[in-house]
Amino acid sequence: MRSLATLLFLGGLVFLLTILTGALPFGEPPMLVGDAIQKAAADEVGAANFVTAVVLAYRGLDTLGELSILFAAATAGGLVLGSAQGGSNRRPAGFIMRAGTDLLFPLLLVVGLYIVMHGHLTPGGGFQGGVVLAAAFFLPLLARPSETLSHAWLSLVEGLAGTAFIAIGALALLDDKAFLTPLLNKGVLGELVSGGSLPLLYLAVGLKVGAELASLLSRLASDEATS
Amino acid sequence: MTTSIGVIFFIGAIGLSAIGIAGILLSNHLFRMVLALAIAEAGANLLLILAGYRWDAVAPIVTDPRTAHAMVDPVPQAMVLTAIVIGVGVQALALTLVIRTRQRYGTLDMRMARQRMQDDLDAAAGVTPSRSLEQPAGARPLPLPVEAAEAGVRHD
After folding, report:
1. Is A29 helix (H, G, I), strand (E, B) or coil?
2. Alpha-carbon distance A120 to A202, whole Å?
3. Which residue, A92, A125, A129, is CA-closest to A110?
4. How do residues B28-59 score in pLDDT, each as one tens digit?
5. What is the C-alpha to C-alpha distance for residues A94 and A69, in angstroms, rounded to an integer?
6. How many domains does chain A have?
């Protein structure tokens, strides 16, 4: 009975969505805001990557909300799993894993910071680079399970990064502008130091996301090992 | 021609969402439900990206400021960036709950976990274990009649 209702519901949903999307002209989006942003973003924000311009400038408040959702999820995960007590008693991984981790750790750090710092020029940004940074700090835990990450340091980095994001946004208020308006000199479009305060915002986002995910991953790993 | 290709793309995205929702609703295994959630999210993200797609357009990144190209809509891409990050957070939270359930009840099967949870609740409430949701939990102690209870309070 439950399966039948589920299948009926699914059939209706698929039918509805197919009819709705079939009526849309594919490849010719009806939205006007995208065109307007493409015309104005290069002059108003100064970021070569328009997705970054949307994420950090036009919809900066939404990004702050997204960061708080991620923070709430990470905090709730830590609350459910409890504090990790010490390292697990698993044996260290084999030679290849340990040597590969030592080789990959600096590489991942450089790649992660590169992606974070070039978020306003190329595909990438704080979220993607932050995940790479979290992976860099999680790899040593896989290779040597007896070690642990310092959760105090991670919380400190996370809190400072979140405060920096809000502080940069609030600085615009002093200038009688809206919250999270891009500040500073916009520079030349396409250069590394351009886009005003957007690279600083993305650096804060990258550090925050990296610290949150690293602490969540290490909690998951140590909890799974001790159970 | 172009519209038929578009319909195929849309059906792919909608199909992914449908597979995910079916997995969530029909599966009884908790970990598979988390995986189905991820699949449904992928379908929803694809739908959003498709909504902003344009033929003969490039990614919304200025490579050469002197030549202007047509670009795809950057707004859905930014929304999908947001949705992916939130999806990761939700999946991590769901996995922590799955781990705790497995540690507490020793199973990932939802029906079995629910049954053991019901047994725990019954034991905590001091009633005879009820194995079925349809049957009542057995004889419970009736509350005192209202007059007697009030009289007892007054005499005290």
Report:
1. coil
2. 8
3. A129
4. 899 999 999 999 999 999 988 888 888 777 88
5. 38
6. 1
Contact (CB, 8 A) for A188 and A108: no
Could you tell me which chain B residue has the CA closest to the CA of A61? B82
Q: CB–CB of B52 and A37 under 8 A? A: no
pTM value > 0.90: no
- Give which of A108, A63, A66, A71 is closest to A198, Cα–Cα: A63
How many CB atoms within 10 Å of residue B39?
18
Structure tokens, B113:
């976990």
Nearest to B14 by CA among A13, A4, A31: A13
Q: Find chain B residues with C-beta within 8 A of A9's C-beta.
A: 25
Residues of A in contact with B60 (CB under 8 A): 38, 49-51
Residue A67 structural domain: 2-226
Residue ranges of domains in chain B, CATH in brackets: 2-57+72-131 (1.10.287.3510)
Q: Render each residue's pLDDT in chain A as its tens digit; 227 residues.
A: 778 888 999 999 989 988 888 777 777 776 778 778 877 777 777 778 888 888 888 888 888 999 999 999 988 988 888 765 555 566 777 889 889 999 999 999 999 999 998 888 888 888 899 999 999 988 888 888 777 778 888 889 888 998 998 888 888 888 777 777 777 777 777 677 777 788 888 899 999 999 998 888 888 877 765 55
Interhelix angle A60-81/A151-174, nearest 10 degrees: 160
Q: How far, in Å, CA of B27 to CA of B102, rounded?
A: 17
What burial class does residue B68 get, using C-beta atoms within 10 Å of its C-beta: 0-12 exposed, 13-18 middle, 19+ buried? exposed
